[in-house]
Amino acid sequence: MTTTPARLTVLAGPTAVGKGTVSADVRARYPQVWLSVSATTRAPRPGEVDGLHYHFVSSDEFERMVDAGELLEWAVVHGRNRYGTPRRPVEERLASGEPALLEIDLQGARQVRASMPDARFVFLAPPSFDELVRRLVGRGTEDAEERERRLETARVELASESEFDHVVVNDDVHRATDELVEIMGLPTR
Length: 189
What we know:
Layout: E1 8-12, H1 19-29, E2 34-35, E3 39-40, E4 55-56, H2 59-67, E5 71-77, E6 81-86, H3 87-95, E7 100-103, H4 106-115, E8 120-125, H5 129-139, H6 144-158, E9 166-169, H7 173-183
Parallel strand pairs: 1-7, 1-8, 2-7, 3-4, 8-9
Antiparallel strand pairs: 3-6, 5-6
């Protein structure tokens, strides 16, 4: 029996829009969706688990992965840390017919669009810019300088919304999750 490859869904949006929160809700409520785990050179935030939230790697290991062609996409985010999607697990899941979701930044989404144009691209948008600022400040994981760098990046990223196939406004996590899963063509709860 041959399995039909699944279609990749890419979720991107500005910093603090709730990509991680929506992805965690997908993981908890829709276990049939496989979520890619990105590699990053940044340090773990409190509560993050290596291999579950990210693969935390050294700069040297990340560079080795880039040089070996092991990443589907990668980018320097906020001018500091590198993030990338390991290629093999994504290709294996798609080949097996499992619905697969990447939660990545705008630069990465553009790279995936270039290499996998048949993927489904979903932009996660905040209800307003003021709400985005409130969320970024409220999570308390960045100092003032880092927050400002992230807000500058967010302004640029918000302008890219038209590059995406779908836009989901994250005004309520469960509602946004259900809309994303529905876009993926799966039954919602």
